[in-house]
Structure formats: structure tokens, C-alpha cells
């Protein structure tokens, strides 16, 4: 994720200048689409939400109901907000699917967030969101790393750039967060 001074200017002006807001989407769309594609790869088989729809829903959260874009301090600030928007969309969708009137009753499974593939059929976004919320109260930086890496699809290098910390710090926080979340989601988390 390289810095682009022109993009940073657009991000900073997006709220005050409608032309900047209009010019922003084409500049960030491909990256948002890539992030959403990574998220959709984690969805259960037979899901109905597509990456393009996830991008569009996230974009609507980012620009607001009135179509007025917010302004962001930097590219990292924008993509952090986008990752959070995608997280909320996926969690809300998981809650709707899980509800009894939609035939839910998903089973709770431990999350093994190691850097290997896992079965998306066993991923419980609602339980993950609850555990991540608790982790954010205990260790906000570790929770932010999970949000950017898991929901935002960012690499260690890009996460470090967004957060303004070293890659080593991100890698350490990622490993700590994975272990903590695995215990929390398996129901064996102790204080």
C-alpha cells in the first residue's frame, strides 16, 4: 500500500468538496474490491452476498446516507474505516442468517486464525465479533491488527503502515490476538 499524495488530498477534501468525493471512488474501488474479495472467500458456501455488493454497502457506510463523504486524514485512515465497515456488514449479515426466523442456529466453533486456510462453513462471525469487541477492551492495538488483517485483508506490511508501527509489532500483536481469540471462541478464555 504505497502512499499517493493525490489520493491523500482527495481523502482529506472529500467531505468539503463534492468533486473530490466523486473522484474518490474510482481511485479506491479496485483496492476495496480486492479487500472484499478476500472477505468473500471466507464466507460459507452458498452465500448470497457478493464482493461487489460488499464494496457498495461499505461505500454507503463510508459516505453516509446523504451522499456526503467524510474526510479522512490519510489512506490508512480511509482503509481502516473501510475494514471496519466491511466487518460490521458481515457481522450484521451473519446475525440475520443466524436468527431463528431465517433458519439460523449456527454452531459455535473455535477460530484458528493461523495463516492457513480454514473452513468458512465453521466461521461464526457473530461470536468472532463479540470476542473481538472484548479483545478491543483488553488490547485495542491487537484488536485493530485483527480488524485490518482479517476483515481488511491487509498484509503485515500494509497493517504496519496504516497503524504507524513496525512490522515486527504487527506480527507480534497478530500472534497474540490469534491465540487469545482461539481461546475465547472455544469458550475456555480465562481472565
UniProtKB/TrEMBL annotation:
InterPro entries (alphabetical): HTH_Sigma70_ECF-like, RNA_pol_sigma-70-like, RNA_pol_sigma-70_dom, RNA_pol_sigma70_ECF-like, RNA_pol_sigma_r3/r4-like, WH-like_DNA-bd_sf
Keywords: Sigma factor, Transcription, Transcription regulation
Limits of the RNA polymerase sigma-70 ECF-like HTH domain: 14-186
Single Gene Ontology MF annotation: sigma factor activity
Record-linked SUPFAM superfamilies: Sigma3 and sigma4 domains of RNA polymerase sigma factors (SSF88659)
Record GO biological process: DNA-templated transcription initiation
Lineage top rank: taxon: Bacteria
Keyword Hydrolase: no
Alphabetized NCBIfam families for the sequence: Sig-70_X6 (TIGR02999), sigma70-ECF (TIGR02937)
UniProt-recorded name of the protein: RNA polymerase sigma factor
Amino acid at each position: 500500500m504505497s502512499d499517493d499524495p493525490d489520493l491523500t488530498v482527495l481523502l482529506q477534501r472529500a467531505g468539503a468538496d463534492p468533486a473530490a468525493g466523486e473522484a474518490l471512488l474510482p481511485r479506491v474501488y479496485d483496492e476495496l474490491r480486492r479487500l472484499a474479495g478476500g472477505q468473500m472467500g471466507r464466507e460459507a458456501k452458498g452465500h448470497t452476498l457478493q464482493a461487489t455488493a460488499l464494496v457498495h454497502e461499505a461505500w454507503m457506510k463510508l459516505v453516509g446516507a446523504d451522499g456526503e463523504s467524510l474526510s479522512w486524514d490519510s489512506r490508512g485512515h480511509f482503509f481502516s474505516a473501510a475494514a471496519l465497515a466491511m466487518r460490521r456488514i458481515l457481522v450484521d449479515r451473519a446475525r440475520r442468517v443466524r436468527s431463528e426466523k431465517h433458519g439460523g442456529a449456527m454452531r459455535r466453533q473455535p477460530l484458528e486464525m493461523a495463516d492457513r486456510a480454514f473452513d468458512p462453513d465453521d466461521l461464526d462471525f457473530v461470536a468472532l465479533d463479540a470476542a473481538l469487541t472484548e479483545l478491543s477492551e483488553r488490547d485495542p492495538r491487537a484488536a485493530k491488527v485483527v480488524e485490518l488483517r482479517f476483515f481488511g485483508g491487509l498484509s503485515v506490511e500494509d497493517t504496519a503502515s496504516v497503524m504507524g508501527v513496525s512490522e515486527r509489532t504487527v506480527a507480534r500483536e497478530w500472534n497474540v490476538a490469534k491465540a487469545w481469540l482461539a481461546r475465547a471462541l472455544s469458550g475456555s478464555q480465562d481472565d
